Amino acid sequence: MTTPDRSTSAGSPSVSRRRFLAGSAAAGAAAAAGLEGILSARRAPAFAQGTRLNIVRWVDFIPACDVELKRQAVDASKELGAEVVFEFINANDIQARVTAAMQSGAGPDIIQMLHNWSHLYANGLVDVSDLVAWQVKEQGALYPLSDANTKVAGKYLALPHGIVPGLIAYRKSWFDEIGVTTFPKTYEELRQVAMKLKKKGKPYGQTLGHTFGDAPGWAYPLMWNFGGMEVDQSGKTAIDSKGTVEAVKFMTALWKDGCDEGGLAWDDTNNNRAFLAGEICATLNGASIYIAAKRGQDKIKDDKGEPLVRDIQHARLPAGPAGSWSYQASFHHGVMKYGKNQKLAKDFLKWLHGKEQFGKWFQVAEGFSIGSTKFWEQHPLWTTIDEPMKGFRTAADNSRVFGHAGPPSAKATEAYSKYVVVDMFAKGVQGMKAEDCTAWAAGELKKIYG
Amino acid sequence: MKKSIAGGSGGAAGIEVVLPHPGTSRPTGMTRFLENERLLAAMLLTPTVVLLGLFIAYPFVIGVWLSLSSVSVGNPGEFVGLKNFVKAWNDSIFRTAFYNTFYYTFWATIFKLALGMWLALLLNRHFRGKRIVRAAMLLPFIVPTVLSTFAWRWMFDPTFSVLNWLLYHWGFITTKLPFLSDGTYGMWCAIVVNTWRGMPFFAISLLAGLQTISTDLQEAASLDGANGWQRFWHVTWPLLKPVTLVVVVFSIIQTFSDFQLIYVLTGGGPANATHLLATYAYQIGVATGLLGEGAAVSLFMLPVLFIVVWLQLRYLRRLEGA
Predict the structure, then answer these.
(1) Residue B178 is nearest to which of A123, A261, A423, comparing CB atoms?
(2) Residue B229, CB half-sphere, CA atoms under 13 Å: how many?
(3) Shortest Cα distance from A282 to chain B (angstroms)?
(4) Could you give the dihedral angle defined by the CA atoms of residues B73, B74, B80 and B82, in that order, rounded to the nearest 10 degrees?
(5) What's the CATH superfamily of A16-164+329-384?
(6) Tens of pLDDT, residues B208-254
(7) Is the pTM above the cut of 0.80?
(8) Is A99 within 8 Å of B73 when comparing Cβ atoms?
(9) What fold, for B93-276+293-321?
């Protein structure tokens, strides 16, 4: 028995159609010339009739952003001559989807890559260095975190799209009530404030659960800002340090004194709901709380019956003894190697990430998602946006990446995926001694980093 | 053709009947084929064997291979022997998950059996609306697990738990109970939800068993002066034991390898405190992409389940033989 030639088998009708359509001279030229060619030819390119491009992304915290993408998909379908279809799934399920797709060699053509996932899935991703070069030429240099998270062994394996920066959303009036008119500058000051507000039934809200954004967004900077780190510059495990122990001790004290202790079971949505319901005084989050409060101001009121949005302010993470670093979640698009429409996928990404389309989506996001280059800091949106939102414009400028202080690597992604750093703090707040927590984390990291 | 088909050994004249002449209507190829028992058996069994091979044996063999290799997402890996099993055994989270799996299975099965039996005994009585109650009882079993578990998760929500709200307003508690934010509470919440979901299966199966027990036996025991408990223990239970054992075997298999409920309710948290082997294998193999290690974690279930099932079926055979 011989293995059937897949390129000619009846089971691959799209290939034969592609061959058929390849005879079209105008469209063929357009395909060869890329998106510019398509546009100048004013004809759909040589993608087979019925060709479908599937893109998997998270369900955005700003639903209007997904609506905008769906709208853009219709436009893209016309421009590219292929059906572009978005599928939105829970962000916590995307990694499972990537694994299943890569192992089976079938699935979406483009998958959204969060954080530094490109390093873990390097073998399944197409080199998009040409697209990154184009994007940088058009929109300026990438933020260091977007660069580090997508560049693997000198090649870019995903195209940076946006960053969802996290700042602490807090209730101004509640802070004012206890005499705090500016947001605490240090972690210790934050603990004092949270302690006072928790006594009034308004605790600080923070998740330490297994969830993709808010948990690592809090845990990693807390470790860094107290002087801890996963690994040293050579990539050797270095988490079992005085700085990390101090960070765990602080977290344990903050938890007991000032936090909503239900946070151990929260995912990325719980703090949004708790804040909007007036259950917590502050929480590290993207701008989705503010935007939801603004869009629903007729219904979402504070305890005085006023729109809650008027009482929300944002602040950066406080400083620890070793600095005030943050971790910001960067989002990228990866073209999957198994995909049969890789060229189409790249053309689509060039279309989607271009100034025109990204600009429209950026506008809809209202500051929840920012660009992956400083170019977008100059967008007119920032001059008209509400005052409490302005801090998001430059929030990505002090972000480190997972695996600090070592080089970006798949091992850092593995440590993130196993929630080692988050669990280290979670164990502390559940009663384990700080020294034991860091020793446990060191043991787990040694299994990963060697 | 005339042929004697009866007559006995005594050689008495038998009845003569006319049989069709073999030459006049020969069996077709298909008839001959169908009359060949071996071929027919093979033909009937083939679909089942193919299905079992494709969907049970093949994944199982692949799973065993993965567990013996260093395959990770996008990397073909190589043979590493039992390294993944040793690594798992030395992993503190694995040990927690291993212990949790036994704990969860043990208590959930006990509660499902006790409550299922109680419900079956109640439903075996005559009362108005019995059929509606029987149908309604199956609802937890019919509703997709993911949906019903989402509803439970809402009830156990750390911030907005309706149970906490009720307990607080009724004056039973002054602070929220940490349903899902404490490892012990979280595990017991999972056991409660599993019991709620699995109890109807026990109840319906045991009810079917109860209805096969003759009422004469109960009446005879009553006449002999046996009270309710004695009638149950000496009459009902011995006759119900075989059915119970089969139901328990099924339940142990399902509970031991449970995934959906924990995945939706706690995600294995807080801090891995409620992971079962299945959810931890998923976390390692699928979410993190370490397919070899994940397969090794999940294969730890196999010998345990094999021993449990073998012991119970052996006991069942003994009961049937007695």
Answers:
(1) A261
(2) 0
(3) 15
(4) 20
(5) Periplasmic binding protein-like II (3.40.190.10)
(6) 999 999 889 988 998 988 898 899 999 999 999 989 998 999 899 99
(7) yes
(8) yes
(9) MetI-like fold (1.10.3720)
